[in-house]
Specification:
219 residues, alpha/beta, six-stranded parallel sheet, two-stranded antiparallel sheet, 7 helices, disordered C terminus
Length: 219
Amino acid sequence: MTNADQTRPLDVVAVIGSLHTPSKTAALVDAIVDRLGAQVPVDVHVIRLHELGPDFAGVLRRDQLPESVELELRAIERADLLVVATPVYRASFTGLFKHLFDFVEQYALVDTPVLLAATGGSERHALIIEHQLRPLFGFFQALTLPLGVYAHDSDFVDYRVASPLLIERIENAIRRGLPLIRSSVAEQAAIERTLADGAEADAAPAEPVVAGAPVRLYT
């Protein structure tokens, strides 16, 4: 990454799939974002489905969504990093969580890093990350980070993360994910610079063609 890429805060969008507050899922996201921010500069935007859900629960098409939801979808689609978390409900993510991502443009998240997280009543639900969340974001061709974070009820006290082992899992997930996140941001910045340079080249006056000079064709 260039110096400019390093100093620009990561545009992090966190999606909390819980349908109520207070929420252990929200507490987990807070802990993830806090520890991520201790490693790199971040600009965090949080989407809470218990607040946003009434605005889109009955909508079937994106062009019918209110502006409040459309703005959140654009934030998701532009993010450098997504942190997505859901409580386990009927062995899967919540319905509103899935319904929100049903509106996301199919190719908007290609290669976007996604840190997967979930909460449940016991350790028995830990595979939701591999069986439910990872395939969903695989459909979008997103870059799901190697380690997800699962937490269960005993990891929290008064809706705060209280387990040293959970904190360790969060830190390991961030440590393993940061090289991929940095690489993704650097690649996106390089693409944007190339496109900008190409636009400037297209706008510049054409050089006169010299008779007999070799001509290079660009695809």
